[in-house]
Amino acid sequence: MTYAETLGYLYQQMPNFQRQGAVALKEFSLSTTEQLMAALGNPETQFKSVHVAGTNGKGSSCHLIAAVLQAAGYRVGLYTSPHLKSFTERIRINGEEISQASVVDFVERSRPAIEELKPSFFEVTVAMAFDHFASQKVDIAIVEVGMGGRLDSTNVITPLVSLITQIGLDHQQWLGETLPKIAREKAGIMKHGIPTIVSQYQADVIEVFVKVGEEVSSPLMVAPAQWLVYRTPAGKFTIYRHGEMYLQEICLGLHGHYQQENLPGVLAVLEQLEAEDFWIGQEHVVQGFAEVVALTGLKGRWQILGEEPLTVADTGHNEPGLRAVLSQIQATPHRQLHWVWGMVGDKDAQSILSLLPRDANYYFCAPKIPRAMEVGALGALAKSLGLEGVSLSTVNEALTQARAQAAPDDLIMIGGSTFVVAELDEL
């Protein structure tokens, strides 16, 4: 098969939650993943790893950890999802995406097992990543959970350390309607004897992590108890480690103010890796934080696409993620806000739209995936909630319209869904 034919096979033959939604979800179980790994020779046992779960911040945290380890000279695998532009973005080694030839080779080699076991799209991509990391002999892989944790396909690894980032309401129909229930699913990555770090102290869920940690004998550390991170008025960061100055006025290559909440967990993971004989100096932290985008290829986190008017793309799409984006919008000088907005249909659209400012101009659109909320329905619901705007056929058409209406001192945001940001031509 060619690469295009291989992708067609993956998308058409296997259920894909990120594009199709609930119809693509198989029974919640690790059984198929475990059988697929066994058919491949259990690659998940052949490399060291860090496992990262959470509602918001897990992708950025993965990229930051990987960037620092790359700066320290290690060969670092990175598995994240979903991709924005290319399928190969999901699987990287030292920032380099898996080759199209390697994707074709993997599918051809594993096709008998795939057709026998009938795994989901996500299960196959996880297996592909782990096979790639094992064959390329990475020093360590940073692995992001897809959804949940306990029964996520990535949860077949035994990492050196687990990290759980912010817990918020998302995917409630599968993970639970309350923060403690969602936290319990995320806590499923905690393993016997393996340290677990939580990025933030959240009163609503901390007892969940304490209880699960005791159940599985996983030492638990709340990162801000040891690492304090302050953002300076100039947008740089000063860091204290165990009450003492660690780094002062360092730059972060990610512009979202919300990244401050991810840094304690990232730093605590790096400290734990030092205890596992990884050599990570302060200079590597400085370089990795500053050059994270160049080193790992991260996109879509308060990514600036243009000036005059300032144009920003951000993938924040659930309530806590959106609140963080709204906070930064308020802190960003601008005359009028223009928002290119689209959503997937299985979100609580009314609750999310209710958070948006009424005085912005909206340009509603729908990403080209089956899960997308139809643009007419989105526009009608938004109007009923007091949000005024126009409906456009595509994401890029919506952005063109926003730019035509915006003044140089205005602010244009693009978001509402990862898939909206993914369709931007200039990303």
What's the helix and strand layout?
Elements lengths: L2 H11 L3 H4 L10 H9 L9 E5 L4 H14 L4 E4 L11 E3 L2 E2 L2 H18 L3 H15 L4 E5 L16 E4 L7 H4 L3 H8 L9 E3 L7 H11 L3 E3 L4 E5 L5 E5 L2 E7 L8 H17 L6 H9 L1 H5 L6 E4 L3 E4 L5 H13 L5 E5 L7 H5 L7 E4 L10 H10 L4 E3 L3 H11 L5 E5 L2 H5 L5
Parallel strand pairs: 1-5, 1-6, 2-5, 6-7, 7-8, 13-17, 14-15, 14-17, 15-16
Antiparallel strand pairs: 2-3, 3-4, 9-10, 10-11, 12-13
The whole-number mean of residue pLDDT values reads 93
User: How much helix is in the residues?
Assistant: 25-40%
CATH architecture of the largest domain: 3-Layer(aba) Sandwich
Q: Separation of termini?
A: 29 Å
Amount of beta strand? 15-25%
| CATH homologous superfamily (4th level) name of the largest domain | Mur-like, catalytic domain
Trace the largest sheet across and list its strands: 4-3-2-5-1-6-7-8
* Helix and strand composition category: alpha/beta
CATH class annotation of the largest domain: Alpha Beta
Low-confidence stretches: 17-25
Largest sheet: 8 strands, mixed
Summarize the structure in words.
- The two termini are about 30 Å apart.
- Strand 12 (about 305) and strand 13 form a beta hairpin.
- This protein has 2 domains: about 5-295, UDP-N-acetylmuramoyl-L-alanine:D-glutamate ligase (3-Layer(aba) Sandwich), CATH 3.40.1190; about 305-420, Mur ligase, C-terminal domain (Protein-Tyrosine Phosphatase, Chain A), CATH 3.90.190.
- Strands 4-3-2-5-1-6-7-8 form an 8-stranded mixed β-sheet, sandwiched between helices. It has a 6-stranded mixed β-sheet with strand order 12-13-17-14-15-16, sandwiched between helices.
- About 40% of the residues lie in helices and about 15% in strands.
- The protein contains 17 helices and 17 strands.
- With about 425 residues, the chain is an alpha/beta fold.
- The protein has helices at about 5-15, 15-20, 30-40, 60-70, 100-115, 120-135, 170-175, 180-185, 205-215, 260-275, 280-290, 290-295, 320-330, 350-355, 375-385, 395-405, 420, and strands at about 50-55, 75-80, 90-95, 95, 140-145, 160-165, 195-200, 220, 225-230, 235-240, 245-250, 305, 310-315, 335-340, 360-365, 390, 410-415.
